[in-house]
């Protein structure tokens, strides 16, 4: 018995020391109240994934600009110079060679311009394809941004639970300390036994250890958010508790489905993919059509090519060039089949995505309603648990019940309050999940 008492005393001392250390550490840390809007803003500004996506979007924009330059004329400027070898002229077969006098040095300066006029729509098709790819990159970035917001929100909601756990345990510790004083008084009066005092001490120790775990969990969750938000890692994040009590208007299921069809980034990407493969058909068709271009040039050269006289000769030219690739009649046949099948493939992908959207909307919609109903049910449970604890506490103080009943009532009240907080956070999270599913996040 003496060994058990000594063990309990040492356990209480250890719990008190462990409780004071994190409290002193937390006291050295600064806290910051963070709203959901600020959470999303900082999270998207500091996300490495989104920064990477922004670069990819910028690259797509440069490709569009590059495609537009194909509409401009192709201008080439050239110059050449070199030594002219001694020409040999045979006037009678291969005998009696003659070596005429010629200049030893040649020069040639030229400028050529080619302006495409018509290529069957190929140039405009390439510009359209680059523009669609840029839009797809922007939509992919928006889709990833929504996913990141949801991940941040989940961590943010976890903080609510930890802070509520801390609050409830702090109150339980205070009540346990008062209860322990009453039990020790009642023990001195011979009303209760040492066993009740020991059990009350153990309960207080457990509450203090749980309080310490809640403090540590807050610090860990805050550090994870600090890293993601680009803040000082030692900063404690305090969530905006008003969010838990914000009224949310729930629309009907069909409205959310229609919103998803119009706004969900994945749905818009699927439509852009269809436009992209339809544009590929136009590009393949362009290969069946002729190409027309304007060309012009000017050349300044010496010596004269006809007489090899050491004189400068300048000439210019301008004209139209029309070409038709006959091999396209048989080379593009399979390309056209492939392009048309790709269009049908993308249309099936769009229909599959619409099915997935209806499923995800229904799931998120049902879970959100379920979470709201759970909150209402747990509100009643909390009131009942508080009333039960008050009744059992009065009965215990009047020696009409045992300590076990009182501790059980305290545990039930604690669980009910924590479950209510979890249910409130789940309501917020499922609401944003629903907004994510319909493309409004």
From TrEMBL:
InterPro entries: OMP_efflux, TolC-like
Keyword Zinc: no
Domain of life: Bacteria
GO molecular function: efflux transmembrane transporter activity; porin activity
Coiled coil as UniProt keyword: yes
GO cellular component, one term: efflux pump complex
Compartments, as annotated in UniProt: Cell outer membrane
Keywords associated with the record: Cell outer membrane, Coiled coil, Membrane, Transmembrane, Transmembrane beta strand, Transport
Coiled coil spans: 368-395
SUPFAM superfamilies: Outer membrane efflux proteins (OEP)
PANTHER family assigned: OUTER MEMBRANE PROTEIN TOLC, TO APRF-PUTATIVE OUTER MEMBRANE EFFLUX PROTEIN OR SECRETED ALKALINE PHOSPHATASE-RELATED
UniProt record similarity statement: Belongs to the outer membrane factor (OMF) (TC 1.B.17) family.
UniProt-recorded name of the protein: TolC family type I secretion outer membrane protein
Classification of source organism: Bacteria, Pseudomonadati, Bacteroidota, Bacteroidia, Bacteroidales
